[in-house]
Design brief:
- With 64 residues, the protein is an all-alpha fold.
- It has one domain (2-62).
- It contains five helices and no strands.
- The protein has helices spanning 2-7, 14-19, 30-33, 35-46, 51-62.
Length: 64
């Protein structure tokens, strides 16, 4: 869970990654490529044990 959250940091550097010919780990089709993993991640994001820490962290990258 923590490692996946850290990949959201890439969202602020997508342009730089693409200039270097790299594809971000969390590319546009990643949830379709790994539907079960991202469905599980979505459930964990809402879980009371994780949501207070994970949701604000991930949300700041999704809205940027």
């Amino acid at each position: 869970m923590a490692e996946l959250c850290l990949f959201f940091n890439e969202k602020k550097s997508v342009g730089a990654l693409k200039k270097q010919g790299l594809v971000p780990v969390l590319h546009a089709q990643v949830d379709a490529e790994f539907p079960r993993a991202f469905a599980h991640f979505a459930r964990l994001r809402k879980h009371p044990a994780f949501a207070p820490d994970v949701e604000p962290y991930v949300a700041k990258f999704e809205t940027a």
